[in-house]
From TrEMBL:
It is a multi-pass membrane protein. Belongs to the UPF0382 family. It comes from the Bacteria. Pfam families: DUF423. Its main location: membrane. The chain crosses the membrane at residues 12-35, 55-72, 79-101, 107-131. This is Uncharacterized membrane protein YgdD (TMEM256/DUF423 family). PANTHER family: TRANSMEMBRANE PROTEIN 256. Keywords: Membrane, Transmembrane, Transmembrane helix. It comes from Marinobacter oulmenensis.
Length: 136
């Protein structure tokens, strides 16, 4: 078995792939919510599901754009860590909301804010990357 190369550059490439996958899944989830859940769950639950889809798509797009930012001279390591926090946010925030709506399991509620914090940390790291240029 070979080791996976995990340089900041390879992580940035992965953020493009994961961002594309997350966007695809957000479109699928949005269609499922609009067509499969309407009339099955309450309007409040549908609104929660739509929030999960929206936040997933926002952060999928952020991952895709971040993959292009090293060309601007932004620090790859900070971009890579920001991407990791956004992926964690998608899983924790959107994932917990999806499960909450689909399963009715309310113990997942406390997980959602952790995902929200991950989103915020990712954005703060993007700001730091914008202010601290890569040394060449």
């Amino acid at each position: 078995m070979t080791a996976v190369k995990t340089t900041p550059g390879s992580i940035i490439r992965w953020s493009l792939a994961i961002g594309g996958l997350a966007a695809l899944l957000a479109v699928i989830a949005g269609a499922f919510g609009a067509h499969g859940l309407r009339g099955v769950v309450t309007e409040r639950a549908l609104s929660v599901f739509e929030t999960a889809v929206s936040y997933q798509m926002y952060h999928a797009l952020a991952l895709i754009v971040t993959a292009l930012m090293p060309a601007l001279g932004l620090k790859r390591r900070l971009l890579a860590v920001a991407s990791g926090f956004w992926v964690a946010g998608i899983v924790l925030f959107s994932g917990s909301l999806y499960l909450l709506v689909l399963s009715g399991t309310h113990w997942l509620g406390p997980v959602t804010p952790v995902g929200g914090v991950c989103f915020m940390v990712g954005w703060a790291l993007l700001i730091a990357a914008a202010l601290k240029r890569e040394r060449r």
